[in-house]
Amino acid sequence: MRTTEMLQTYPATMNVDREALARAIESLVECSQACTACADACLSEEMVAELRTCIRTNLDCADSCGTTARILSRHTGYDANLTRAHLEACIAACRACGDECEQHAGMHEHCRVCAEACRACEQACRELLATMS
Fold first, then answer.
1. Could you tell me the CATH number of the domain that includes residue 48?
2. Is-contact 108 42, C-beta < 8 A?
3. pTM
4. Which of 2, 17, 22, 120 gives a 20 to 30 Å CA spacing to 75?
5. Per-residue pLDDT of the chain (133 residues; tens, 9 = 90+)
6. Domain count, the chain
């Protein structure tokens, strides 16, 4: 990804750790993709009815991560309170999705991969949030 390169081109001052920001954005995009793909894979499973909660949680997490990545990519007129709120919501979504996918990880490899992406994203968001306090 070109996240770091793009952040370095921002012409104004940024009041955030650019390295932590880049890690968070990349993790958010990766998690959004993993959650979307996991939901789709769940829909292809024969036991799809038992995966309804997993699918819903995947899609919620994917949307939260995608939105948060876009918000973190914009810095003109930056609002720290809005950014913190989205990071906190994303952390909760990643935690919930990671927990749900871990329940199915023994049977479905896509859930194992998704759970790992969720845990990594949750950590990257926590690290960025800690730099903003």
1. 1.20.1270.360
2. yes
3. 0.94
4. 120
5. 799 898 998 888 888 899 999 999 999 999 999 999 999 999 999 999 999 999 999 999 999 999 999 999 998 888 999 999 999 999 999 999 999 999 999 999 999 999 999 999 999 999 999 998 6
6. 1
